[in-house]
Amino acid sequence: MSGALLITVNVHGIGPEAAGAPEAELFGRDAHGRYTYRIGLARVLDALSEYGLPATLFWPAMEAERLPRLVERCLREGHEIASHGRAFEDHAKLGRDEEASVIGEAHETLRRLSGVAPRGFRAPTGTLSQNTIPILQALGYHYDSSFLDDDTPYALAEYGGYGMVELPVSEGLTDATHFRRRVTQDRAEDLMREELAALLAVDGYACLTFHPRADIGVGRLARLPLIERLARLAEKQGARPGLCGQLAEQIHAGRAANQIENVGD
């Protein structure tokens, strides 16, 4: 691994709150999520365009159905659409049949709205079951990006995902980790810069994760420049930003080439 930076966005609106209470009961408690719909996500996309940065956006199906024009905009501006589940279900608590139904429904919703079948997945609550990877593999997914158990990508064959790779995330490179703790913006940036510089220096791979919400995310104007400053820091260390799907394909192609060489030897 060398020189790989992933910029990812978890498109969270009111989905996290709506997963635990009827939407009609949320009025006043879902303001930070509504910020995503009204201005947060559009501002993040504006910033990515201004900075010339490609990103992979992980869309829960229920959020995508609310923002179809922004789904279209993502594709039009060169970003990748990936699945973030249906409606913030905890996949570790679903039975196999129910989980297959939830993943399949989310998959079809994103394909219908974007015209492109998603090839990447990130668990909406960060938890998977032993059935998740095989279900994704059967649908043609190339990668998952849910785990925190390594600093660099690895193959998922032993988990039932032959041909798939894991693109691990980092809590230290996730905006919500810091803003949820109500640290200052300067402190959040310092922590993320330290983590980013360390990972790239040792492993050459880093996955930044942002949210467009007003509370735990970077949707507010004062926080948006954080995206560019972190990306430029990575570029100084030789890591250019790319899409998750592209990196997964490069890794898979590299492994296939190595296997061919080994057979030839």
User: Given the structure, what is the number of helices?
Assistant: 10
**Strand residue content:** 5-15%
Compressed to H and E, one letter per element, the order equals EHHEHHEHEHEEEHHEHEH
Largest sheet: 5 strands, parallel
Structural class computed from helices and strand pairing? alpha/beta
Shape: globular
Specify the helix fraction band: 40-55%
Average of pLDDT? 92
Regarding quaternary structure, what we see is single chain
Rg value: 18 Å
Number of E strands: 9
- Measured distance between first and last alpha carbons: 23 Å
Instruction: Report the uncertain regions.
Output: 259-265
Q: What attributes characterize this protein structure?
A:
10 helices; four-stranded mixed beta sheet; 265 residues; alpha/beta; disordered C terminus; 14% strand
